[in-house]
Design goal:
The chain is 29% helix and 22% strand.
Length: 367
């Protein structure tokens, strides 16, 4: 029964996706005499944690009950008081956590406090599932960089566009609706300067989702046109133009005057500036970054082993052409045995397209 209750807690935790970041998604179930008496999840950043919500629902039935929670209860004052304090006051007898919280102010201390107070404490039930759920949070805590989600739409022969750059629309309306859902739950949406120039995208979620993503253009020369949709809407929806040290001061000033944030990145190489950008976004506590292209930007991130997750839409079309762009146009892999693999692969048949999503696992000697 323990596994059943923890699975329910994981289901609850996922309901907070897009609302709680940079906090983790957490779910909680309270059981008294084999009956669920309280449930809760972290609903939004700054709101009560899952444990407090479940305790409120359980009321007096929490006395002597067991609590199943997907992440170690916090033991410090943040946006809310410590959950360990509320657990002790409610009279919970047993706490089962899926995993420890790596956040430095917790990191095992919450479970230790509960155990020292005489509670039965267990940790590790469905830990792999809990880690997968909160992989973006864990990456941000452990590396200081956001979880990178790569998205692209391509034809059956692996082309992002025709040889002349036309790409609207390779995928169908159902695919585009899923992309808008993705946009609505991330902190930033990144494209390269060529994609911004050729496609003139708006990069907003329509309809809006729980988050309002910063639209980011990796534009070493600060060449983003003033008349582009991104610049024209910069005062209504945030735009960050990440430029290199060789960009012209007058172009940086032009973009800043139009309402864009101009982020000057250090580094002489394309890859060094990309890493600097990821570091900057991590410092801003961005948890999820969606990268929508183009092929050179996606390829550079792939070469850096920086892509964590992919969402790919494959349309039943053929374009051909040696000069037509492909999704990962970087250096690439030199041996087939070193190819990156997709884990937790999900494949769906949409009305017009095939949709594939999965986590990227790299060969250890890649690049």
């Amino acid at each position: 029964m323990d596994r059943q209750y923890m699975r329910r807690a994981l289901e609850l935790a996922r309901l907070g996706q897009g609302w709680v970041e940079p906090n983790p998604m957490v779910g909680c179930v309270i059981v008294q005499a084999d009956r669920v008496v309280g449930e809760g999840y972290h609903r939004r950043f700054g709101a009560d944690h899952a444990e407090r919500e479940a305790l409120r629902q359980a009321g007096s039935l929490a006395q002597g009950a067991a609590m199943y929670v997907t992440l170690e209860p916090c033991c410090h004052h943040g946006k809310t008081p410590p959950c360990t304090q509320a657990i002790l006051q409610a009279g919970i007898q047993r706490v089962v956590a899926a995993m420890q919280d790596p956040f430095p102010q917790v990191a095992g201390q919450g479970l230790r406090q509960l155990a020292e107070a005489g509670l039965q404490v267990e940790c590790g039930l469905l830990e792999a599932e809990a880690r997968q759920l909160n992989a973006p949070y864990l990456k941000l805590i452990q590396t200081g960089r956001p979880w990178v989600i790569a998205k692209w739409a391509m034809t059956l022969d692996g082309k992002l566009a025709t040889r002349t750059g036309q790409s609207r629309w390779i995928s169908g309306p159902e695919s585009r609706a899923l992309v808008h859902q993705l946009r609505g739950r991330v902190d930033g949406i990144l494209v390269g300067s060529r994609t911004a120039a050729l496609d003139d995208p708006l990069l907003t979620a329509r309809p809006p989702g729980p988050r309002k993503a910063v639209r980011i253009v990796f534009d070493s020369r600060a060449s983003l046109p003033t008349q582009s949709q991104l610049v024209q809407t910069a005062r209504q929806w945030p735009v960050c133009v990440a430029v290199g040290p060789d960009s012209a001061p007058e172009d940086r000033s032009r973009l800043a005057s139009a309402g864009c944030e101009v982020l000057l990145l250090p580094g002489q190489s394309h890859q060094n500036r990309l890493l600097a950008l990821l570091d900057q976004l991590g410092q801003r506590r961005m948890t999820n970054l969606l990268v929508e292209g183009g092929g050179r930007l996606l390829g550079a991130l792939f070469d850096l082993q920086a892509i964590d997750e992919v969402h790919i839409f494959v349309a039943p079309k053929l374009l051909g052409g040696l000069e037509a762009p492909c999704p990962l146009a970087g250096l690439g892999i030199d041996q087939l045995t070193h190819a990156a693999q997709l884990q937790s692969l999900d494949i769906q048949q949409l009305r017009q397209d095939i949709y594939l999503a999965g986590r990227v696992i790299y060969f250890k000697n890649h690049c």
